[in-house]
Amino acid sequence: MPHRLIVIAPSHYSEKAAWALDLAKLPYVREVHAPLAHVAAVKAAGGKRSTPVLVVEGETKRVIDDSTAILRWIQTEPSADWRPYGPSDDPEILAWEERFDADLGPHSRRLAYFHLLPHKALALPCMTHGAPGWEATMLSLTYPLVRRGMEKNMRIDATGAARSRDKLLAVFDAVDAALSDGRPYLCGDQISAADVTFAALAGPLLLPATYPTPLPRLDQLSVEAQEALAGWAQRPAGVYGVRLWAGRKVA
Ligand SMILES: N[C@@H](CCC(=O)N[C@@H](CS)C(=O)NCC(=O)O)C(=O)O
Questions:
Q1: Does residue 49 line the site of ligand 1, with CB under 6 A?
Q2: CB 197 less than 6 A from any atom of ligand 1
Q3: Quick one: which H or E segment has residue 31?
Q4: Each residue of 6-39: pLDDT tens digit?
Q5: What is the 183 CA–ligand 1 centroid distance (Å)?
Q6: Looking at the structure, do residues 152 and 127 belong to the same domain, yes or no?
Q7: Whose CA is nearest to atom 16 of ligand 1?
Q8: 117-145, pLDDT tens digit by residue?
């Protein structure tokens, strides 16, 4: 029986988990929800509030409601074809992942939403892709309210966006420096949790064509947004992230 992965349509933390499940060749079905409607779905599945939530099917059913905890589970799952942290929990991989979880994920999201949320016509298809029709209708009707709630919860405003940009520059500098010796992956010669976490969480900045939820193209956004988001994909860290996305095989 396939596991269940409950996600919000554009959630990059969910993409991190989905990517890892695909690399490990573990069977799962993706259950996509629109923001707000996700709360009931997550709680019904046994999660707290945020996505991704993985419902592990089998003799002992388990609910895991954090992307990193999902990767930790994959690491110990006998039927997994890939070990996210290498054969024996490489501390370097763990350290990169921790840094990206804290300093990349919340900030790429805030910068992207700062520029996307004002454009309902562009934001809606992205926030509802693959979700049930009624959830898309509900989000369309309540959009101003949901937008305000997201802006308040994630402190999405000009000051927050500027702070996020600084955090992101520091992360990209660190990844540029690590890659400067020509290595193909951050740790070792195989894709690891470090690479998956970087590429997935940088998704909202890199806007890769292969992102499972179609993201807007740069040329559809305002000039201000284009200025804020252009350039990330051209940096060595960005080129590496885009390369990883190009090789992503969605199950
Ligand atoms: N630490 C969590 C963060 C997950 C997270 O921030 N998820 C966002 C989507 S990217 C979410 O579900 N937000 C909606 C909410 O919390 O209600 C993880 O790694 O899974």
A1: yes
A2: no
A3: strand 28-33
A4: 999 999 999 999 999 999 999 999 999 999 999 9
A5: 31
A6: yes
A7: 50
A8: 999 999 999 999 999 999 999 999 999 99
For the chain, how many structural domains are there in total?
2
> Is 86 contained in some domain?
no
Q: Quick one: tokens of 124? A: 């809606």
| Residue 84, domain member (yes or no) | no
Give pLDDT, residue 249. Answer: 81
Same structural domain, 149 and 26: no
Is a pLDDT exceeding 80 seen at residue 251? Answer: no
Residue 111 CB partners (closer than 8 Å, separation 6+): 161, 164, 165, 168, 204, 205, 228, 229
CATH code, 101: 1.20.1050.10
Regarding whether 140 and 100 lie in a shared domain, the answer is: yes
pLDDT of amino acid 106:
98
> 244 in the Ramachandran plot: left (φ > 0), alpha (ψ -120 to 50) or beta?
alpha
Q: Is residue 197 part of a domain?
A: yes
- Whether residues 124 and 8 share a domain: the answer is no
The pLDDT tens digits for 46-84 are 999 999 999 999 888 899 999 999 999 999 999 999 999
Is 83 inside a domain boundary?
A: no
Q: Please work out whether the CB of residue 13 comes within 6 Å of at least one atom of ligand 1.
A: yes
Q: Is the CB of 68 under 6 A from ligand 1?
A: yes
Is there an atom of ligand 1 within 6 Å of 183 CB? no
Domain that holds residue 72: 3-76
Helical (H) or strand (E) element with 28: strand 28-33
CA-nearest residue, atom 13 of ligand 1: 50
Is 218's pLDDT higher than 90?
no
Give, for ligand 1, the residue of 12, 50, 197 to mutate: max count of ligand atoms closer than 8 Å to Cβ. 50
